[in-house]
Design goal:
Elements lengths: L2 H11 L4 E6 L3 H13 L3 E7 L3 H10 L6 E2 L3 H9 L4 E3 L2 H6 L5 E4 L4 H13 L3 E4 L2 H18 L3 E3 L4 H14 L3 E9 L12 H7 L3 H8 L2 H14 L19 H4 L5 H5 L4 E6 L7 E6 L3 H9 L8 E5 L8 H11 L12 E7 L17 E7 H7 L11 E2 L14 E2 L5 H13 L1 H6 L2
């Protein structure tokens, strides 16, 4: 990734910046705007779309662009950009269609809305950077199919755990070590947390209660690890992952002993997480080596005697690193992390409370459901409900707390693009299982 800075400096010197449009101006979006405008050479944030225009304007103002111009039409937006200005709009799809935008960053976390954004951007020849793990973990593989056909990159981001993990995974592979576990270091996991219990924490950090609830209840880490699995070909060893809890302060090099070696070494490797280890909130990759001479060197270099060698990154810097992903996509056509093909792991919905017939399911990180990782072939075979599609569904029968929902347990809203794309994804990759399902 070190070559990215030089490539951006070259774009700056040539007065040929990578032109970026961002959709979403919340907590993370404001940080991205500040980072690109103030600290990244060779890149320009030329437009922001947000549900409320005021939020887009404030994001630009926080990044020292005091007078962004309001775009009412497609022509307005493209004219503003062509004259070196900065446009704001409530119409996100205008950014996706703009001929003078190279890359669209999607920062909403909304699955249905994000599906429209991603597809429109891809159809209009834009690279797409997703700060939307929920979308990626639900229909990322089919978005990748469409992006490949269009000759553009769709990728999750450096800075969030999946991108940071993939950087480390690629490094570990490049030195001849075989990655067998990709892990996430968490400080808390309680599937019954909700926006009420997390309200104080959210207020302290200026975030939305449902967002931090999805961190606490395991939904977000499930999406993150599913994205990694789909990019590496790894699986989960069990529904929900092992997720061992270790004594606070235990270093990740010792925490790896919490995983059963036989499960880690079996098959294509697994994705998982650990609660309580340090350095949090980092990520880690466990690898093996089959050469005794190289094993001796790894031991000399303080990675231990094996068979598992622990590599880790002690932090993830979210919005600071997103521009690196933009540059990799626009300049090098390289994805930080994207699905490799057939989905390997999905995130399914489990009941956070007893659910009653007739209830409408609320959103991710709310009161009614939490997410669990499950291997995709099992999800298809058992017709389990992806949690990314759960919001807005009507419950058709009473369900007990912790019960994993199936698609037969709910009525889907009519006409959603995310459901259409999910059906396309399942048909592309799992046709034999679908044809033999009862």
């Amino acid at each position: 990734m070190i070559i990215v800075d030089k490539a951006l400096e070259k774009r700056q010197a040539e007065n040929r910046p990578v032109r970026v449009g961002m959709i979403g101006a919340g907590f993370m979006g404001r940080g991205i705007a500040l980072q690109i405008q103030r600290y990244v050479k060779g890149m320009e944030l030329v437009a922001i779309a947000n549900r409320h225009l005021d939020g887009a304007i404030k994001a630009f103002q926080g990044a020292s662009v005091e007078t962004p111009a309001v775009a009412e039409t497609q022509g307005d937006l493209e004219s503003i950009i062509s004259k070196g200005g900065h446009g704001v709009t409530e119409d996100a799809l205008m950014l996706c269609r703009a001929g003078n935008i190279d890359v669209v960053i999607e920062v909403t976390g909304a699955v249905e809305f994000g599906a429209h954004v991603a597809m429109t951007a891809i159809q209009n020849g834009k690279h797409v950077v997703l700060m939307n793990a929920e979308l990626d973990g639900t229909i990322g593989p089919v978005l990748k199919v469409h992006a490949d056909r269009a000759g553009v990159v769709v990728t999750n981001a450096d800075g969030d755990q999946p991108g940071v993990t993939m950087n480390l995974y690629r490094f570990v592979k490049s030195i001849g070590v075989k990655p067998v576990l990709c892990g996430n270091i968490k400080g808390l996991h309680d599937p019954y947390r909700n926006p009420t219990t997390q309200e104080g924490f959210a207020k302290k950090w200026g975030q939305k209660p449902h967002m931090v609830t999805s961190f606490a209840d395991g939904t977000k880490v499930s999406f993150e690890q599913a994205i990694i699995a789909n990019a590496t070909g790894m699986r989960v060893a069990k529904r929900g992952m092992f997720g061992p809890t270790v004594a606070a302060g235990t270093h990740i090099r010792q925490a790896v002993d919490a995983y059963p070696v036989e499960e880690v070494l079996h098959g294509p490797g697994i994705v998982d997480y650990v609660v309580g280890a340090e350095p949090g909130p980092g990520i880690f990759v466990l690898g093996t080596h089959d050469n005794p001479v190289q094993q001796h060197y790894l031991n000399l270099y303080k990675l231990g005697e094996g068979p598992l060698y622990c590599f880790y990154t002690p932090y993830h810097l979210c919005h600071f690193e997103v521009p690196l992903t933009v540059a990799r996509a626009a300049i090098f056509h390289d994805a930080a992390i994207s699905p490799m093909g057939r989905p390997c792991v999905d995130v399914v919905a489990a009941a956070k409370i007893d659910l009653k017939k007739g209830q409408t399911l609320d959103g991710l990180g709310h009161y009614m459901t939490y997410g669990l990782c499950e291997n995709s072939d099992t999800v298809i075979r058992e017709n389990l409900l992806p949690i990314g599609l759960a919001e807005g569904c009507t419950v058709k029968r009473d369900l007990s707390r912790d019960q994993v929902l199936t698609c037969d347990d709910v009525e889907f809203p009519a006409g959603r693009l995310c459901d259409q794309l999910r059906r396309e994804q399942d048909g592309l990759f799992f046709k034999p299982i679908l044809e033999n399902r009862p």
